[in-house]
Amino acid sequence: MKVNGVSYRSIWRDASDGAVRIIDQRWLPHDFRIAVLDSLDDFAAAIRDMWVRGAPLIGATAAYGVAVQMARDPSDAHLDHVHAVLNATRPTAINLAWALNRCRAALRPLHASDRAGAAMRLADAIADEDVEINRRIGEHGLGLIREIAAAKPAGEPVRLLTHCNAGWIATVDWGTATSPMYHAAEAGIPLQVWVDETRPRNQGALTAWELGSHGIAHSYITDNAGGHLMQHGLVDMVITGTDRTTATGDVCNKIGTYLKALAAHDNGVPFYVALPSPTIDWTVADGLREIPIEDRAATEVSHVQGRDAAGGIASVEVTPAGSGVANPAFDVTPARLVTGLITERGICPASRAGLAGLFPELASAESRAS
Ligand SMILES: CSC[C@@H](O)[C@@H](O)C(=O)COP(=O)(O)O
């Protein structure tokens, strides 16, 4: 997608020098900076400390991390070491383990001298596949938005609510929850997007930055505003992303998603989740009990980062000295609260049968493995 009129992906291998570059998301939406990832420490820090973030982008970054490392030392021992280091960076988004396992399984049978080239081709393929998956999610989600628009007086906007940033910078391109929005905008359907701020890290500001860059009307709202807006009939549909969805359709996503799903359920507002297939964890049946929830630093809650009056980026403390702080970063929305899953193969109910119907080969591969 575009930044100041120039097309970017969130991660890419630069044709000029072969280096892996990322949009360094720590400074957005205020500063657009690009960083090079080179050492294993760089890749691990980039994922752990959220220079890159969002489940699909975490997976693609890990794949490029493996590729760069295979050019340095293609041994079995180093492959296992890189897998272990990167896999330990963030526990909740399944795309990380998915990408690392895929890389290791593809590289292990190869002679060491063939691994560097194969690893880089695979990382490029994972990135390209992500773009295509998200484009297709956008096409399927567009159908839902069209239906809502068709039931409204001409010109009245479709009002969507989204949580966190499941936008193009959370993926390689397009985004998951935002892809239907970009497709709707291209189709000329007027939109009004309610963007949850998503404390503590305010990823909603990233979503607002993205939508603003593409001319999509939006309002940045506090996390607690969504229920009120739904009660007053001001939300036609909720679309969120997901960091891990179980084989039974439970959806793990950024903390606060569950409360939005409850409010949507109470108010009869459809609650859809944009789900790329690499985000399905076929090994998990009960999201609430089985998905590890990332416990992040207290400073993310006690402090807020933003632009100060002098134009610099500053961090200020909001909690009183001595207060305890807890920071669970994700929650699980039970499948019963999810109206549907928008995947690259179409929309299905949030259920084992729904997912297996769209992805029979993945569902059966898992049942063979277990
Ligand atoms: C397309 S991204 C889906 C999710 O990864 C997104 O909604 C989210 O929760 C991101 O969390 P983050 O902690 O910023 O990585």
Automatic annotation (TrEMBL):
For this UniProt entry, the molecular function terms from Gene Ontology, in alphabetical order, are: S-methyl-5-thioribose-1-phosphate isomerase activity
Gene3D superfamilies under this entry? Answer: translation initiation factor eif-2b, domain 1 (1.20.120.420), Translation initiation factor eif-2b, domain 2 (3.40.50.10470)
Q: Which family does the entry's similarity section mention?
A: Belongs to the EIF-2B alpha/beta/delta subunits family. MtnA subfamily.
Q: Name one GO biological process term.
A: L-methionine salvage from methylthioadenosine
Q: Where is this site: Transition state stabilizer?
A: 164
Q: Please list the reactions this protein catalyses.
A: 5-(methylsulfanyl)-alpha-D-ribose 1-phosphate = 5-(methylsulfanyl)-D-ribulose 1-phosphate
Per the record, the gene is mtnA
The pathway is: Amino-acid biosynthesis; L-methionine biosynthesis via salvage pathway; L-methionine from S-methyl-5-thio-alpha-D-ribose 1-phosphate: step 1/6
Q: What does this protein do?
A: Catalyzes the interconversion of methylthioribose-1-phosphate (MTR-1-P) into methylthioribulose-1-phosphate (MTRu-1-P).
Name the domain of life: Bacteria
Q: Which Pfam families match?
A: IF-2B (PF01008)
* EC numbers, comma separated: 5.3.1.23
Active site: residue positions: 243 (proton donor)
Protein keywords: Amino-acid biosynthesis, Isomerase, Methionine biosynthesis
Q: Where does substrate bind?
A: 53-55, 90, 203, 253-254
Give the species this sequence originates from: Meridianimarinicoccus roseus
Q: This chain belongs to which protein, by name?
A: Methylthioribose-1-phosphate isomerase
Class of the enzyme per the UniProt entry, highest EC level: isomerase
